Amino acid sequence: MSSGSCVRLELTVCWPRPRHRVTKGPVMSSVAVELDRDLINLLRDSDQPVAQTATELIVLELYRQGRLSSGKSAELLGMPRFDFIRHASDLGIPFFRMSQEEWEAESAAAERLAERLTQGTA
To answer: Among 2, 20, 54, 98, which is least packed, fewest CB within 10 Å?
Structure first.
């Protein structure tokens, strides 16, 4: 897939300044990344600008790795948290991350609670 030529892509990420900052306006950081032209062409196939698509992919991957919270991810992408969680879930990135043992413990606790509620001893 490599055509041997690279394209320089500049990403600018901005987020609100912390309230304790004296200056106003968003905090912005830029990074330039060289990507293979074929990859740029694939990114252009989306309905969004290439930089926006690349930013979204980076945020989604960091969220998948557990390095970003759903709230921070949503903030970086400029969308409501619930919409981000739904979008990530639609892409196969789960909101709840439990091991099998954690799931079994939660399930057993829920069953015990349901049993107590039906017996009126909750």
So the answer is: 20
